[in-house]
Amino acid sequence: VGPDDHPPDARQQIFDFAHNRGWPVFADIGSGLRTGGPPKLVIPWIEPAFEVGGLADHRAPEVILRIGRMPTAKAFSQWLTRHHEVPVVLVNSHVETHDFTGTSAATIQSSPKEALDSLGDGAGRDPEWLVAWERASARAGHAVATALPASSETAETVASLRQLDDGSSVHLASSMPIRHADGFVGNLEHDIRVLVNRGTNGIDGTIATTLGESMALDGPAVAILGDIAFLHDAGGLLAAGRSGRNLTLVVLDNGGGGIFSFLPIADVLPGETFNRLFRTPHRTDIRALAEAAGARVHTDVEAIQNATRTPGLDVVVLETDMNPVPAFRAAKRAAGAAMLAEDHVEEEAAEGHIAPDQDDQDA
Ligand SMILES: Cc1ncc(C[n+]2csc(CCOP(=O)(O)OP(=O)(O)O)c2C)c(N)n1
Protein backbone atom coordinates (compact mmCIF):
# COMPACT_ATOMS: atom_id res chain seq x y z
CA VAL A 1 0.00 0.00 0.00
CA GLY A 2 1.61 3.20 -1.15
CA PRO A 3 1.57 6.71 0.29
CA ASP A 4 -1.93 8.09 -0.08
CA ASP A 5 -4.76 9.56 1.96
CA HIS A 6 -6.62 6.33 2.66
CA PRO A 7 -9.67 7.03 4.86
CA PRO A 8 -10.04 4.99 8.08
CA ASP A 9 -12.75 2.69 6.66
CA ALA A 10 -10.54 1.85 3.66
CA ARG A 11 -7.66 1.06 6.01
CA GLN A 12 -9.81 -1.31 8.03
CA GLN A 13 -11.04 -2.94 4.88
CA ILE A 14 -7.49 -3.50 3.67
CA PHE A 15 -6.65 -5.17 7.01
CA ASP A 16 -9.77 -7.37 6.85
CA PHE A 17 -9.14 -8.30 3.23
CA ALA A 18 -5.55 -9.33 3.98
CA HIS A 19 -6.51 -11.15 7.17
CA ASN A 20 -9.19 -13.19 5.39
CA ARG A 21 -6.71 -14.32 2.77
CA GLY A 22 -3.63 -14.72 4.93
CA TRP A 23 -1.76 -12.04 2.99
CA PRO A 24 0.84 -9.69 4.45
CA VAL A 25 0.31 -5.96 3.89
CA PHE A 26 3.49 -4.11 2.98
CA ALA A 27 2.63 -0.57 3.96
CA ASP A 28 4.50 2.63 3.19
CA ILE A 29 4.89 5.05 6.12
CA GLY A 30 2.75 7.53 4.15
CA SER A 31 -0.13 5.07 3.75
CA GLY A 32 -1.64 5.77 7.17
CA LEU A 33 -1.58 2.02 7.83
CA ARG A 34 1.45 1.97 10.11
CA THR A 35 0.30 4.19 12.99
CA GLY A 36 -2.23 3.74 15.77
CA GLY A 37 -1.16 0.17 16.59
CA PRO A 38 -1.74 -1.68 13.31
CA PRO A 39 -2.19 -5.49 13.22
CA LYS A 40 1.02 -7.47 12.86
CA LEU A 41 0.15 -8.49 9.31
CA VAL A 42 1.27 -4.96 8.41
CA ILE A 43 4.91 -5.45 7.45
CA PRO A 44 6.87 -2.19 7.61
CA TRP A 45 10.24 -3.52 6.42
CA ILE A 46 9.76 -3.09 2.67
CA GLU A 47 13.28 -1.89 1.90
CA PRO A 48 15.09 -4.92 3.42
CA ALA A 49 12.44 -7.46 2.39
CA PHE A 50 12.59 -6.54 -1.31
CA GLU A 51 16.35 -6.07 -1.53
CA VAL A 52 18.18 -8.36 -3.98
CA GLY A 53 18.36 -11.74 -2.22
CA GLY A 54 15.93 -10.57 0.47
CA LEU A 55 12.99 -12.54 1.79
CA ALA A 56 10.71 -11.47 -1.06
CA ASP A 57 13.05 -13.27 -3.46
CA HIS A 58 12.79 -16.47 -1.42
CA ARG A 59 9.09 -16.21 -0.66
CA ALA A 60 8.05 -14.61 -3.90
CA PRO A 61 4.34 -13.80 -4.07
CA GLU A 62 2.10 -15.29 -6.77
CA VAL A 63 0.36 -11.98 -7.26
CA ILE A 64 0.69 -8.45 -5.87
CA LEU A 65 -2.23 -6.14 -5.29
CA ARG A 66 -0.72 -2.66 -5.25
CA ILE A 67 -2.94 0.02 -3.74
CA GLY A 68 -2.29 3.72 -4.36
CA ARG A 69 0.94 5.43 -5.30
CA MET A 70 4.25 3.62 -5.72
CA PRO A 71 5.75 2.90 -2.29
CA THR A 72 8.81 4.99 -1.37
CA ALA A 73 11.16 2.02 -0.89
CA LYS A 74 13.46 1.89 -3.87
CA ALA A 75 14.01 -1.83 -3.35
CA PHE A 76 10.31 -2.47 -4.05
CA SER A 77 10.15 -0.77 -7.46
CA GLN A 78 13.44 -2.46 -8.37
CA TRP A 79 11.99 -5.81 -7.28
CA LEU A 80 8.99 -5.28 -9.58
CA THR A 81 11.22 -4.67 -12.56
CA ARG A 82 13.24 -7.83 -11.75
CA HIS A 83 10.11 -9.97 -11.36
CA HIS A 84 7.96 -9.39 -14.42
CA GLU A 85 6.61 -12.92 -13.97
CA VAL A 86 4.65 -11.82 -10.88
CA PRO A 87 1.41 -10.14 -11.97
CA VAL A 88 0.72 -6.81 -10.29
CA VAL A 89 -2.85 -5.55 -10.09
CA LEU A 90 -2.88 -1.82 -9.45
CA VAL A 91 -5.81 -0.37 -7.52
CA ASN A 92 -5.82 3.31 -8.16
CA SER A 93 -8.49 5.88 -7.48
CA HIS A 94 -6.53 8.66 -9.20
CA VAL A 95 -6.65 9.52 -12.85
CA GLU A 96 -2.88 9.24 -13.24
CA THR A 97 -1.51 5.72 -13.41
CA HIS A 98 1.44 5.93 -10.95
CA ASP A 99 3.18 3.06 -12.64
CA PHE A 100 6.54 4.43 -13.71
CA THR A 101 8.01 0.93 -13.67
CA GLY A 102 5.46 -0.20 -16.26
CA THR A 103 4.99 -3.46 -14.36
CA SER A 104 1.23 -3.57 -13.73
CA ALA A 105 -0.61 -6.39 -15.48
CA ALA A 106 -3.98 -4.77 -14.82
CA THR A 107 -5.38 -1.61 -13.27
CA ILE A 108 -8.61 -1.34 -11.29
CA GLN A 109 -9.56 2.32 -11.50
CA SER A 110 -11.57 2.74 -8.32
CA SER A 111 -11.29 3.34 -4.61
CA PRO A 112 -9.65 0.55 -2.57
CA LYS A 113 -13.02 -0.09 -0.94
CA GLU A 114 -14.85 -0.77 -4.21
CA ALA A 115 -11.95 -2.75 -5.61
CA LEU A 116 -11.61 -5.00 -2.57
CA ASP A 117 -15.38 -5.53 -2.44
CA SER A 118 -15.32 -6.66 -6.06
CA LEU A 119 -12.56 -9.21 -5.41
CA GLY A 120 -14.83 -11.45 -3.33
CA ASP A 121 -13.90 -13.69 -0.42
CA GLY A 122 -10.57 -15.26 0.32
CA ALA A 123 -10.36 -18.60 -1.40
CA GLY A 124 -6.97 -20.32 -1.31
CA ARG A 125 -5.92 -19.03 2.09
CA ASP A 126 -2.41 -19.96 3.26
CA PRO A 127 -2.05 -19.02 6.95
CA GLU A 128 1.45 -20.48 7.20
CA TRP A 129 2.69 -18.00 4.63
CA LEU A 130 1.41 -15.01 6.58
CA VAL A 131 2.81 -16.33 9.87
CA ALA A 132 6.23 -16.70 8.26
CA TRP A 133 6.14 -13.05 7.17
CA GLU A 134 4.93 -11.86 10.56
CA ARG A 135 7.72 -13.69 12.32
CA ALA A 136 10.28 -12.34 9.88
CA SER A 137 8.91 -8.85 10.52
CA ALA A 138 9.30 -9.22 14.29
CA ARG A 139 12.90 -10.39 13.82
CA ALA A 140 13.62 -7.40 11.57
CA GLY A 141 12.33 -5.03 14.25
CA HIS A 142 14.69 -6.46 16.87
CA ALA A 143 17.61 -6.40 14.43
CA VAL A 144 17.06 -2.75 13.51
CA ALA A 145 16.80 -1.74 17.16
CA THR A 146 20.29 -3.08 17.82
CA ALA A 147 21.93 -2.26 14.49
CA LEU A 148 21.11 1.44 14.27
CA PRO A 149 23.98 3.66 15.43
CA ALA A 150 22.45 5.95 18.08
CA SER A 151 23.67 9.24 16.67
CA SER A 152 22.78 8.49 13.04
CA GLU A 153 20.08 10.58 11.40
CA THR A 154 18.10 7.38 10.82
CA ALA A 155 18.05 6.83 14.60
CA GLU A 156 17.29 10.52 15.21
CA THR A 157 14.30 10.31 12.85
CA VAL A 158 12.99 7.20 14.59
CA ALA A 159 13.49 8.80 18.02
CA SER A 160 11.77 12.01 16.87
CA LEU A 161 8.68 10.12 15.72
CA ARG A 162 8.50 8.24 19.01
CA GLN A 163 8.30 11.59 20.85
CA LEU A 164 4.96 12.50 19.28
CA ASP A 165 1.69 12.34 21.18
CA ASP A 166 -1.50 10.84 19.83
CA GLY A 167 -3.35 13.41 17.74
CA SER A 168 -0.20 15.03 16.28
CA SER A 169 0.50 15.27 12.59
CA VAL A 170 3.97 14.93 11.12
CA HIS A 171 5.16 15.94 7.68
CA LEU A 172 8.06 13.79 6.47
CA ALA A 173 10.09 15.81 4.01
CA SER A 174 12.04 14.77 0.98
CA SER A 175 14.65 13.62 0.77
CA MET A 176 15.99 11.44 3.61
CA PRO A 177 13.43 11.94 6.44
CA ILE A 178 10.73 9.99 4.62
CA ARG A 179 13.23 7.26 3.73
CA HIS A 180 14.56 6.94 7.28
CA ALA A 181 11.02 6.74 8.65
CA ASP A 182 9.67 4.46 5.96
CA GLY A 183 12.64 2.14 6.22
CA PHE A 184 13.25 1.90 9.92
CA VAL A 185 10.60 3.23 12.30
CA GLY A 186 8.54 0.05 11.93
CA ASN A 187 4.90 0.22 13.03
CA LEU A 188 3.93 2.86 15.58
CA GLU A 189 1.51 2.48 18.47
CA HIS A 190 1.02 6.25 18.51
CA ASP A 191 -2.04 7.51 16.74
CA ILE A 192 -0.32 10.16 14.67
CA ARG A 193 -1.10 11.32 11.18
CA VAL A 194 1.79 10.99 8.74
CA LEU A 195 1.78 13.38 5.77
CA VAL A 196 4.11 13.15 2.79
CA ASN A 197 4.39 14.77 -0.61
CA ARG A 198 5.17 11.97 -3.02
CA GLY A 199 5.16 12.54 -6.75
CA THR A 200 7.38 15.43 -7.65
CA ASN A 201 9.24 15.04 -4.32
CA GLY A 202 10.33 18.66 -4.26
CA ILE A 203 12.17 20.07 -1.28
CA ASP A 204 10.48 23.43 -1.75
CA GLY A 205 7.77 24.86 0.46
CA THR A 206 8.08 22.22 3.17
CA ILE A 207 7.56 24.64 6.06
CA ALA A 208 4.67 26.42 4.32
CA THR A 209 3.10 23.02 3.62
CA THR A 210 3.39 22.05 7.28
CA LEU A 211 1.88 25.38 8.28
CA GLY A 212 -1.06 24.67 5.96
CA GLU A 213 -1.42 21.19 7.46
CA SER A 214 -1.51 22.69 10.95
CA MET A 215 -4.35 24.96 9.86
CA ALA A 216 -6.34 22.11 8.32
CA LEU A 217 -5.89 19.65 11.20
CA ASP A 218 -6.37 19.78 14.93
CA GLY A 219 -3.43 19.01 17.18
CA PRO A 220 0.27 19.80 17.11
CA ALA A 221 1.92 19.87 13.70
CA VAL A 222 5.48 18.67 13.21
CA ALA A 223 7.83 18.50 10.24
CA ILE A 224 11.01 16.47 10.01
CA LEU A 225 13.15 17.98 7.28
CA GLY A 226 16.72 18.38 6.06
CA ASP A 227 18.81 21.52 6.42
CA ILE A 228 18.58 22.40 2.72
CA ALA A 229 14.80 22.03 2.69
CA PHE A 230 14.65 24.20 5.82
CA LEU A 231 16.76 26.96 4.28
CA HIS A 232 14.92 26.70 0.96
CA ASP A 233 11.72 27.76 2.72
CA ALA A 234 13.02 30.62 4.87
CA GLY A 235 9.96 32.62 3.76
CA GLY A 236 7.67 29.87 5.04
CA LEU A 237 9.62 29.91 8.31
CA LEU A 238 8.87 33.62 8.81
CA ALA A 239 5.18 32.99 8.08
CA ALA A 240 5.18 30.08 10.54
CA GLY A 241 6.65 32.32 13.24
CA ARG A 242 3.98 34.97 12.64
CA SER A 243 1.13 32.47 12.46
CA GLY A 244 0.96 31.65 16.15
CA ARG A 245 0.26 28.01 15.24
CA ASN A 246 1.71 25.19 17.31
CA LEU A 247 4.45 24.03 14.98
CA THR A 248 7.62 22.05 15.65
CA LEU A 249 10.26 21.80 12.94
CA VAL A 250 12.85 19.09 13.45
CA VAL A 251 15.86 19.85 11.25
CA LEU A 252 18.25 17.00 10.49
CA ASP A 253 21.34 19.09 9.87
CA ASN A 254 23.79 16.91 7.99
CA GLY A 255 25.44 19.89 6.30
CA GLY A 256 23.87 19.61 2.85
CA GLY A 257 21.92 17.16 0.73
CA GLY A 258 22.55 13.81 2.41
CA ILE A 259 20.71 11.80 -0.22
CA PHE A 260 23.36 12.50 -2.81
CA SER A 261 25.80 10.31 -0.89
CA PHE A 262 23.75 7.33 -2.16
CA LEU A 263 24.55 8.18 -5.77
CA PRO A 264 27.29 6.12 -7.41
CA ILE A 265 29.07 9.35 -8.33
CA ALA A 266 29.71 9.98 -4.63
CA ASP A 267 32.29 7.18 -4.76
CA VAL A 268 33.98 8.54 -7.86
CA LEU A 269 34.32 12.30 -7.53
CA PRO A 270 36.94 13.91 -5.29
CA GLY A 271 35.26 14.95 -2.03
CA GLU A 272 35.55 18.68 -2.64
CA THR A 273 34.05 18.46 -6.13
CA PHE A 274 31.24 16.22 -4.89
CA ASN A 275 30.46 18.68 -2.12
CA ARG A 276 30.42 21.69 -4.42
CA LEU A 277 28.33 20.08 -7.14
CA PHE A 278 26.04 17.71 -5.21
CA ARG A 279 26.02 17.99 -1.44
CA THR A 280 26.05 21.83 -1.47
CA PRO A 281 26.87 22.44 2.20
CA HIS A 282 25.35 25.68 3.48
CA ARG A 283 27.05 28.24 5.67
CA THR A 284 23.90 29.61 7.29
CA ASP A 285 23.43 29.72 11.05
CA ILE A 286 20.21 27.72 11.25
CA ARG A 287 19.62 28.50 14.90
CA ALA A 288 20.03 32.25 14.37
CA LEU A 289 17.62 32.11 11.44
CA ALA A 290 15.07 30.21 13.54
CA GLU A 291 15.39 32.73 16.35
CA ALA A 292 14.94 35.57 13.89
CA ALA A 293 11.61 34.00 12.96
CA GLY A 294 10.60 34.01 16.63
CA ALA A 295 11.15 30.29 17.26
CA ARG A 296 12.37 28.68 20.44
CA VAL A 297 15.45 26.67 19.47
CA HIS A 298 16.48 23.29 20.87
CA THR A 299 19.25 20.89 20.03
CA ASP A 300 18.22 17.50 21.39
CA VAL A 301 15.61 15.01 20.42
CA GLU A 302 14.09 14.84 23.92
CA ALA A 303 12.97 18.47 23.54
CA ILE A 304 10.47 17.50 20.85
CA GLN A 305 7.65 16.23 23.02
CA ASN A 306 7.58 19.31 25.21
CA ALA A 307 7.85 21.54 22.14
CA THR A 308 4.77 19.93 20.60
CA ARG A 309 2.88 20.54 23.85
CA THR A 310 3.76 24.25 23.88
CA PRO A 311 1.97 26.77 21.64
CA GLY A 312 4.01 28.64 19.03
CA LEU A 313 6.99 27.78 16.84
CA ASP A 314 9.83 25.51 17.98
CA VAL A 315 12.82 24.49 15.90
CA VAL A 316 14.82 21.46 16.99
CA VAL A 317 18.19 21.30 15.24
CA LEU A 318 19.77 17.85 15.34
CA GLU A 319 23.31 17.77 14.01
CA THR A 320 24.01 14.45 12.37
CA ASP A 321 26.73 12.71 10.35
CA MET A 322 27.36 14.27 6.96
CA ASN A 323 26.94 10.90 5.29
CA PRO A 324 23.72 9.01 6.13
CA VAL A 325 24.62 6.02 3.97
CA PRO A 326 26.57 3.73 6.37
CA ALA A 327 23.89 3.71 9.11
CA PHE A 328 21.07 3.30 6.59
CA ARG A 329 22.78 0.34 4.95
CA ALA A 330 23.80 -1.23 8.26
CA ALA A 331 20.18 -1.19 9.43
CA LYS A 332 18.95 -2.55 6.13
CA ARG A 333 21.48 -5.36 6.08
CA ALA A 334 20.70 -6.34 9.67
CA ALA A 335 16.95 -6.34 9.01
CA GLY A 336 17.33 -8.26 5.75
CA ALA A 337 19.50 -10.96 7.34
CA ALA A 338 17.13 -11.27 10.31
CA MET A 339 14.17 -11.73 7.98
CA LEU A 340 15.96 -14.55 6.18
CA ALA A 341 16.95 -16.38 9.37
CA GLU A 342 14.74 -19.41 10.14
CA ASP A 343 13.50 -19.44 6.58
CA HIS A 344 15.74 -22.23 5.27
CA VAL A 345 17.99 -19.66 3.73
CA GLU A 346 20.32 -18.98 6.65
CA GLU A 347 23.36 -20.17 4.76
CA GLU A 348 22.85 -17.78 1.91
CA ALA A 349 22.31 -14.92 4.34
CA ALA A 350 25.49 -15.86 6.18
CA GLU A 351 27.39 -15.99 2.90
CA GLY A 352 26.36 -12.42 2.23
CA HIS A 353 24.08 -13.06 -0.71
CA ILE A 354 21.97 -10.10 0.25
CA ALA A 355 23.23 -7.42 -2.07
CA PRO A 356 23.87 -4.42 0.14
CA ASP A 357 24.31 -1.58 -2.32
CA GLN A 358 21.23 -1.56 -4.50
CA ASP A 359 19.71 1.43 -2.78
CA ASP A 360 20.97 4.38 -4.81
CA GLN A 361 18.05 6.66 -4.05
CA ASP A 362 16.51 9.01 -6.57
CA ALA A 363 16.95 12.51 -5.29
C1 LIG B 1 12.59 22.30 -5.44
C2 LIG B 1 13.67 21.25 -5.53
N1 LIG B 1 14.91 21.62 -5.89
C3 LIG B 1 15.89 20.69 -5.97
C4 LIG B 1 15.61 19.38 -5.68
C5 LIG B 1 16.72 18.35 -5.83
N2 LIG B 1 17.08 17.86 -4.50
C6 LIG B 1 16.66 16.64 -4.09
S1 LIG B 1 17.21 16.27 -2.57
C7 LIG B 1 18.02 17.72 -2.44
C8 LIG B 1 18.82 18.03 -1.20
C9 LIG B 1 17.99 17.94 0.02
O1 LIG B 1 18.78 18.26 1.14
P1 LIG B 1 18.16 18.28 2.58
O2 LIG B 1 16.88 19.02 2.59
O3 LIG B 1 19.20 18.78 3.53
O4 LIG B 1 17.78 16.76 2.85
P2 LIG B 1 18.69 15.43 2.98
O5 LIG B 1 19.00 14.96 1.59
O6 LIG B 1 19.94 15.77 3.71
O7 LIG B 1 17.79 14.53 3.70
C10 LIG B 1 17.87 18.50 -3.58
C11 LIG B 1 18.49 19.84 -3.79
C12 LIG B 1 14.30 19.04 -5.32
N3 LIG B 1 13.96 17.79 -5.00
N4 LIG B 1 13.34 20.00 -5.24
Task: Explain this structure.
- The chain has 16 helices and 11 strands.
- It is an alpha/beta fold.
- It has 2 domains: 8-146 and 333-350, TPP-binding domain (Rossmann fold, 3-Layer(aba) Sandwich), CATH 3.40.50; 153-323, Thiamin diphosphate (ThDP)-binding fold, Pyr/PP domains (Rossmann fold), CATH 3.40.50.970.
- The chain has helices spanning 8-21, 46-49, 55-58, 74-82, 112-118, 127-147, 153-162, 176-184, 206-216, 227-232, 234-243, 271-279, 286-292, 303-308, 325-340, 346-350; strands at residues 25-26, 42-43, 64-67, 88-91, 104-108, 169-172, 193-196, 221-226, 247-253, 296-298, 313-319.
- The radius of gyration is 20 Å and the shape is globular.
- It has a 6-stranded parallel β-sheet, sandwiched between helices.
- 41% of the residues lie in helices and 13% in strands.
- Helix 7 (153-162) packs across helix 8.
- The longest helix has 21 residues, at 127-147.
- The structure holds thiamine diphosphate.
- Residues 174-176, 201-204, 226-229, 254, 257-259, 363 line the site of thiamine diphosphate.
